[in-house]
Amino acid sequence: MIQDFQVQELLIAITVKQQNPSIVTADFLKYTGIVPSDWELARPPVLTNTAAQVVYQNGVSIVAEVNRVIFAEAIANKEASDVQVGAIAHKYIQTVKQVNYQGVGINLRGIAPYELKNFGSRNYTFSKLLQAGLWQDFGSAPAEASVRLVYTLDETRLYLDINEAQLQYPDQTTKPAILFSANFNRAINQEEPAARLAAIDAVIDKWQTDVETLKELVNKKFLDTQSYAINVATTEPLQFPTAIAE
Length: 246
Fold this sequence. Notes:
By secondary structure, the protein is α+β, with helices and mostly antiparallel strands. 20% of the residues lie in helices and 31% in strands. The chain is built from 5 helices and 9 strands, in the order βαββββαβαβββαα. The chain has helices at 26-31, 85-95, 124-129, 193-204, 207-221; strands at residues 6-16, 46-47, 51-55, 60-65, 68-74, 101-113, 147-153, 156-168, 174-186. Strands 2-3-4-5-1-6-9-8-7 form a 9-stranded antiparallel beta sheet.
């Protein structure tokens, strides 16, 4: 049985023409008011010639690179009003105005555990999403697969990647899971910088709608959610790769 899907991580990735990542320090973020002054660091910041990373104890992280800045937050079991990264992203682009902002992507990741016995020796991707064939049996180990789907939603392109994952619980047991990674891509066509910045601001505000869209898509179109739901607070968080604004 597949358990109910929940979004675990929200990433807002804003692309820029070029920037100096070294300006993004913990002191800069605090003294400019981009982040509250009482936020505590989870670990020492990372600063190199090409990237900077600041991670806070509340699950918010900010990563600056030459061509983008990423605002990420673990949002599992949080009310929308408690999610911080949307407001932080707004404050950042309103404060750091000398940068030529190009676009923005709303990136979401979430998991749905399942019982392997329901799919026999094959995983979810092979059992539910791909048609069986001889192509699956080649080499010295079972083939592995991931799937990318692209949806058109009004003026939004939704890129959905589906991959196998493993959850590790506090007692060291593991359970197979499905990892859904979504990128909501909206074109930013404004040429004038102020208009483009306003358009990026408007997209940032759509993150809650995107969360609900992804949950509806996954729960209604991919998963059998009739039996029971997972409390994702009981699992160790997955290690996700850096998001992209496509």
